[in-house]
Amino acid sequence: MKFLPNYVFIEPGAENYELGKKLIREFEAFGIPINKLKSFNRLDEVKKSPNEFYAFSKRSLVIGIKKSMKLECCKPSADYQFSLVTGCPGSCEYCYLQTNQSFKPFIRIYVNIDEILENVDKYINMAKPKITTFEIASASDPIAVEHITGSVKKTIEFFSSKEFGRLRLVTKYSNIDNLLNINHNNHTKIRFSINSKFIIKNFEHNTDTIEDRIKASSLIYNAGYPLGFIIAPIMYYENWEEEYDKLFKTLKDKIPNTDLSPLSFELIQYRFTAKAKNVILQRFPNTKLNMEEENRIKKWGPYGIYKYIYPKDISEKLKSGITNMIYKYFPNSNIEYFT
Q1: Could you count the other beta carbons within 10 Å of the beta carbon of residue 160?
Q2: Class of 7-338 per CATH?
Q3: How does pLDDT run across 229-242, given as a tens digit for each residue?
Q4: Cβ contacts of 159 within 8 Å, gap of 6 or more
Q5: Tens digits of per-residue pLDDT, 8-18?
């Protein structure tokens, strides 16, 4: 699946960067009008109902400039996170971006990539001789627009020469062709977000199929990248064990030999906040997500907000079940965490 926007907006000054010029040429060639913005903040003045505005945002792309260069912590995935893109063309009902970017869910591409990477280099140098890890997919899925930007390729090549820097990213998309024949120097770990067919079919709208994701992951593995998988969110539902077992069997069939470079897995249970529930029910009134607070327990989150998580007995059942399946098919793999 290759995203192409219906609407394009450009922030002041973005046209002066090489990537900005490239994007303007390409969208004009597609016949997509480019609307000049006075500022990103003016986009919420579009007169539409909340649901119409959400749909409009998901079909829109903003060419912008990254202003703030302060990097935030990104545990447990990495030491820091930075963005080449914010927002995502996918509409995963459970995604935390539904609330994190609830007022402006646009796809926003940053064109000042050289400045972004120069800033990253400062963080790498400050921590020497410690190796510093960076995540680029915490506020977006940059692979979803890589066929438009080429920014991930450039970033991987940047990290390939950094003795003390490592890159991580995760995706639900398969637009990885331009990453297969470049020098990554084993400094970039690519993970694919995979899940059962029930979850992808019902909750992961406008994303690539599980078949396409697994095929892309096999290509990435054969290109020598460190490869991992994120299973998120893990959900407890009827037939969950059977469906997840099928998932791992399919993965094993496509990547049969992992002896030379073991896979890693990150396991995240489904959880939600009261705010997320309200936004999700507004945007997806017919959702099949189970958000019954009375069947959950409260957990205090890192940002001062309660999350509703599975009770301990269900959580332990999910943990042991998924863990056993992973080690059945990939006995030499590494489970980085379960949360």
Answers
A1: 16
A2: alpha beta
A3: 999 999 999 999 99
A4: 134, 165, 166, 167, 184, 185, 187, 188
A5: 999 999 999 99
